[in-house]
Amino acid sequence: MSELTLTLLRLGYLALLWILVLSVVGVLRSDLFGTRVTRRPAPGTPGRGIPAPAPPRGRDTEDRKTPRTLVVTEGSLKGTSLALGQAAILIGRAPECTLVLEDDYSSNRHARLFLDAGTWLVEDLGSTNGTYLGRSKVESPTPVDIGTPVRVGRTVLELRR
Fold this sequence. Notes:
Number of helices: 2
Structural class: alpha+beta
Largest sheet: 6 strands, antiparallel
Order of helices and strands: HHEEEEEEEEEEE
Strand content: 25-35%
Radius of gyration: 23 Å
Number of strands: 11
């Protein structure tokens, strides 16, 4: 083999090693620092939470007992509220979640709240630290009553009217 061929092989091998090292560093960086979460507005500023729609007139007493709002009562997003509709609410650190938590003790896709036959249920999605309804750990989809705390990491949520 000529000297030129050997030098080119050595440089190619060195470049391949650097690509491998940089890809390992990128994976470690994303594992250590997680997903980047955008900052939310401070409490009391415009744009904080999504207001619940006003109830139409003439509703019966059963509709008045159904929750309309999900409120964060403890944690970094304390005071945030989401209007409840028919769609499920995904809770976690991932950007695609409905409620994105800034909480190191929550998983990327931690839990979900969903409506089933007129009852709101909470379901743990295989999180590391678990989801708690009151003091009980959620093992399967569990009904959530109004005012009962739902703990996801260090964040506590409540359903309200």
